[in-house]
User: What shape does this take?
Amino acid sequence: VAPLLLRALDPRTGSGGLLLKERQILQRFIDLPQTLTHAWEHNIPMLVDSTANMIAGQNVFESLRLPEIILCIASFAFALALGRKRLLWGVLVALFLVQWVLFLPDVRYTLPIVPLVLYGWWRASRWILLVIWRHRAGATIAGAMIAFVVLMNLIRVGSVIVEQRSTPFLDHYQSGRYQHVPQLASTINKLLPHDAWLIADNSLAAPLTHMSKRPCASQWDDAFSRIPLTVPLYIVLPLDEPTAGSLAQHGASWQRLSPPLVSLERTGDRPPLELYRLLREETP
Assistant: This one.
């Protein structure tokens, strides 16, 4: 009742139609075979990575898929087993698990059940200790399980502290992922008209919107369908796959790119950030 009441009071629902996310969720169930294929190819591998981050604060196994899979299965088995102690705890974990498999298992969305997953991990280690306490193996396994979680999270906390206090900050934050965003935003402010729109990948859209004072669309909002055809439209490459797919779906009238207006080399093996204008066929 409470969610229905809140939705009725939401000013965005004044027209009586479905909101963007509601339409997307409904479409996932309409296209269930495609949804399940996407879940198997994308969401479940992403869930495996997110579980490592949820338990240890970081992806400790990198490319070693088997330990990651074992960690994921064990963690959710321990959490689901909490249903034997409190039924609603197990139901909550199950609902989130289904939601992640069908939609998006990003690590930040695991926060609501992190306490339950860690509590399940603790109860499992305690059970191992009590059941086979007579043998040294029981104490060793239980101790290793607790030490793994505690030590990995302490290491992660330490690395975050070092990262947050490193200068210049953007050169170190997320390995320099946003290092050139201020320079790109400054260039956009100088070169682009005030009514221009931008398209960028999901990680850059919000920072560019804030820093450049130009609206920047990504795959995760409905801006593609709201971009006026009369405004200058620019694109920052490279795009992530979901954003490129949304552009192909909603921007079919944009046929070609201008020569690059800006090209910023990035550190490591990252491709350069390049700014183009999207041109329609009749644009000179």
Observations:
- The longest strand covers residues 273-279.
- The longest helix spans residues 136-164.
- The chain is about 55% helix and 10% strand.
- The beta strands are 197-199, 216-217, 233-237, 256-257, 262-264, 273-279.
